[in-house]
Amino acid sequence: MPSSKRQPVPGTTIFDGGQAAKGYQLNKMCYSFNDPENRKAFLADQGAYFDKYELTAEQRAALASGSVLKMIEAGGNAYYLAKLAGILGLGVQDIGAQQTGMSVEAFKQKLLDAGRQ
Amino acid sequence: MARIIGGFFTSHVPAIGNAIAKKQQNEPYWKPFFDAFPPVREWIGREKPDVVVFFYNDHGLNFFLDKMPTFAVGAASDYVSKDEGWGIPTTASFEGDPKLSWHIINGIVADGFDPVMCQEMAVDHAITNPMLLMYPDSNWPVRIVPIAINSIQHPLPGPKRCYDLGRAVGRAIESYGENVKVLVLGSGGLSHQLDGERAGFINKDFDRECMDAIAGDVSALNKYSALDVVEKAGAQGVELMCWIAARAAMQGQVKELRRSYHIPISNTASAVMLLSNGPVEAAKAA
């Protein structure tokens, strides 16, 4: 089996069975945001919404911190978290900048530079 | 008999849908990407496929982690474009081709695959954006068969498995008794990563290697594992599997007609390829 032998990919959390189990409630909440009524309910009362989805203490703390890296550590998956980011008005470049500790402008520049190399 | 006339491969970044909705195709940021499509549309307009068989990945619209299929084949009479939660416009629904879907399912199960079979499927930007790029007026002149490949929850199927899936789908299509012209479509990629400290990762060398393999011998990518692809193409660059499967379905004489590669679109190295596929019998005789 390859997974036990290979070196981890730097700066990357593999969303495997362990992460999927750990993050189930958080991702389930984010999946609910496909429905506009649910987005509204979340914005109206976030605490009640967290209760409804039975988020863990770690997941609540990660959400309160606003740190995407912490949300990933708490089992969040990029594709589902993207729906939460959308509600909060954050694009993938905002999220990329936050995770890499760069300004949004510097992160965008990094992508442009990748095209020029 | 049915025939695969070609393969179309394109990035499907959500921002493409927003750029189309806002008519930004000629803005400097977008022009290098959108310039790839007029020749593609010209070819498609001339060749007039009847059905598009899509190899794509769902992004948390139709499938959740409660039941996550490795491979799923749509067998619906229509597919609805639904709200994904963050504002990309929905499109008109897509007509399915259940008879061809079931033929493909029967063929690939006989060939050793165990797909989930779906008579209802909502489809996301991985289907709507390539369709809008081919048919900007959203007046879809084709039926579709969506084949979803898990790119969310590891363990993911790797290049070799997706190659074999594509071969099996290709054999099934070429054995279909109806006189239909099929375009296979690989949706997604190329290198990109949205999550983690490595967000923004792009790998031009690997993308070039992949595009060369798509144009030539796609089995050259079978040496990589799914985790190798995460490392080389980024966490979401695993959408490459959709390209591999679509290319592997083409078993005639393949000719590269178009290739375009541009960095960045959003966080992604965008790529577009168009290949024609000659008759399988002629390829065997050659």
Question: Could you explain how this protein is built, in words?
Answer:
The complex is a heterodimer of chains A (117) and B (286). In chain A, helix 3 crosses helix 8 (78-87) and helix 9 packs across helix 10 (104-116). Chain A has 117 residues and is mainly alpha-helical. Chain A has helices at 2-5, 17-22, 24-32, 36-44, 46-52, 57-65, 68-73, 78-87, 92-100, 104-116. Chain A has a domain at 17-90: Dioxygenase LigAB, LigA subunit (Protocatechuate 4,5-dioxygenase, Chain A). Chain B is an alpha/beta fold and 286 residues long. Chain B has one domain: Protocatechuate 4,5-dioxygenase, Chain B (3-Layer(aba) Sandwich), CATH 3.40.830.10. Chain B is 34% helix and 23% strand. Chain B is built from ten helices and eleven strands. Chain B has helices at 14-21, 31-34, 37-47, 98-110, 125-134, 159-174, 204-215, 226-233, 240-248, 280-285, and strands spanning 3-10, 51-56, 71-74, 78-81, 94-95, 116-118, 122-123, 143-149, 181-187, 254-265, 268-277. Chain B has an eight-stranded mixed β-sheet with strand order 6-3-8-2-9-1-11-10, with helices on both faces. In chain B, strands 5-4-7 form a three-stranded mixed β-sheet. In chain B, a hairpin with a 2-residue loop joins strand 10 (254-265) and strand 11. In chain B, helix 1 crosses helix 5 (125-134), helix 4 (98-110) packs across helix 6 and helix 6 packs parallel to helix 9 (240-248). The mean pLDDT of chain B is 96. The chains are: A mainly alpha (117), B alpha/beta (286). The interface between A and B is large, with 50 and 40 residues.
